[in-house]
Specification:
The protein is an all-alpha fold and 165 residues long. Helix content is 82%, strand content 0%.
Length: 165
């Protein structure tokens, strides 16, 4: 069984720094809570830990997962707030903005799975509403090159979404 106490002694400051750095914009108590939850999960899972060579990597993967969960919860709260405001206002533009944000959150994991170049094309086309010739000029590519990169990005996103559905 993994000695979580020794792991804590060796990595607690670095783990807290990691969590705080990746939760930039969050309150210090929220970051401390997430770091605390990492240790709770480590204690609960210590008897199932098998990779004796990489306890630090295992620990930081728990931290990464909890930071991601925190960000998703915060994003959902923000979307719910915007949605409530949109419903209260009964304004068509507010409803469209809410739908756009909700869609972007749903697509975020698939977009994160793209290469930097593919994300750039998706952002320019679907979030900045640029056509192929504008993107080609901005990226220094041919129209066909942009279309091909965009097609590959959409195929990759579709595969990601199908795998996680």
């Amino acid at each position: 069984m993994l000695d979580v106490g020794a792991l804590y002694e060796a990595h607690a400051p670095a783990l807290l720094t990691y969590v705080r750095r990746h939760m930039r914009g969050a309150s210090a108590p929220d970051a401390d809570d997430v770091a605390h939850d990492v240790w709770l999960r480590a204690v609960r899972a210590a008897d199932r830990y098998r990779d004796e060579d990489k306890p630090k990597a295992w620990l930081f993967q728990i931290a990464r997962n909890l930071v991601t969960d925190y960000r998703r919860r915060r994003a959902l709260v923000a979307v719910e707030r915007i949605g409530a405001e949109a419903m209260a206002v009964q304004h068509p533009q507010a409803h469209r903005e809410y739908a756009r944000i909700e869609q972007r959150l749903w697509l975020a994991p698939a977009i994160a799975d793209l290469t930097h170049e593919q994300r750039e094309v998706v952002d320019l086309r679907y979030y900045r509403d640029q056509d192929t010739s504008m993107m080609a000029e901005r990226l220094g590519m041919s129209d066909n090159g942009v279309k091909q990169r965009q097609r590959r990005a959409l195929v990759r996103m579709r595969r990601h979404l199908e795998a996680t559905a």
